[in-house]
TrEMBL record:
Domain of life of the source: Bacteria
Taxonomic source organism: Pseudomonas mangiferae
Family, per entry: Belongs to the TacA antitoxin family.
A Gene Ontology biological process term: regulation of DNA-templated transcription
Record Gene3D superfamilies: Single helix bin
Protein's name according to its UniProt entry: DUF1778 domain-containing protein
Assigned keywords, A-Z: Toxin-antitoxin system
Basic and acidic residues bias: start-end ranges: 10-20
Lineage, opening ranks: Bacteria, Pseudomonadati, Pseudomonadota, Gammaproteobacteria, Pseudomonadales
Amino acid sequence: MKYNKSHLPWSEDSRHEHSLRSKQKRINLRLQDSAKKTLERAASFEGKTVSQFILNSALAHAEKTIREHKVMSLKASDAEAFFDALSKPVMFNKKLAAVLESHEQRVTGR
């Protein structure tokens, strides 16, 4: 019985097809030659492709940015003032409503 390499689950063709299916979105960048060379050099130091290097770097920065906007650290006196303000009834006015609407659009993209 003859085996065709392309039918084996671990063949090079099937790995390539799997990698193509797992890639879902594309982002294109336009950059100066010096920036591209810098990225290529940095990627080579880490044994990564430029795409892998950019993706890993961008995701790390994105996660840091999200964390910085999700967590609030306050001194004890500021925390006390904050919780005191939360315990009082909210008086909505046009300015507060506009700020809340702006926040909703910026943060949740609605």
